[in-house]
Amino acid sequence: MKKPGSRNREIAGKERKLKHVKAIMTVTGIDHTGIIAAVSQALAQNQVNITNVSQTLMDEYFTMIMQLEFDENQIGLAQVQVAMAPVEEAERLVIKVQAEELFNAMHKL
To answer: Which Gene3D superfamilies has this protein been placed in (predicted)?
Structure first.
């Protein structure tokens, strides 16, 4: 039996465990109005939660890094990257999504 507030979801009468994935997304491009709105809207439409965000401007260049969390049973890491492709094109950005473990391993001193 499922407890209230448990990390499981019931689908078609069967209980399944959520498989939370953490990822890091980087966004770069020429600054213009609507970048954060476009990115966050696409993530929300795909049930991806933004757990941390940092953004800055360097001259005319916009840079943002986001920590994301999502249920891999609903959307996979590669699917998140694919879902961001229309935003990349429409907003003229470069968006990269990678597993948080990989990102951390690549950036350890």
So the answer is: 3.30.70.260
- Measured distance between the N- and C-terminal CA atoms of the chain, rounded to whole angstroms: 46
Contact 103, 57 (CB under 8 A): no
Encoded amino acid at 109, one letter = L
Of the chain, the percentage scoring pLDDT greater than 90 comes to: 66
Q: Does 82 or 3 have the greater pLDDT score?
A: 82
Mutual orientation of helices 77-91 and 35-45 as an angle, nearest 10°? 150
Beta-carbon contacts of 17 under 8 Å, excluding residues fewer than 6 positions away, are 7, 8
Q: What is the pLDDT of residue 105?
A: 62
Let me know the angle formed at the C-alpha of 34 by 71 and 91, rounded to the nearest 5 degrees. Answer: 80
pLDDT (0 to 100) of residue 106: 63
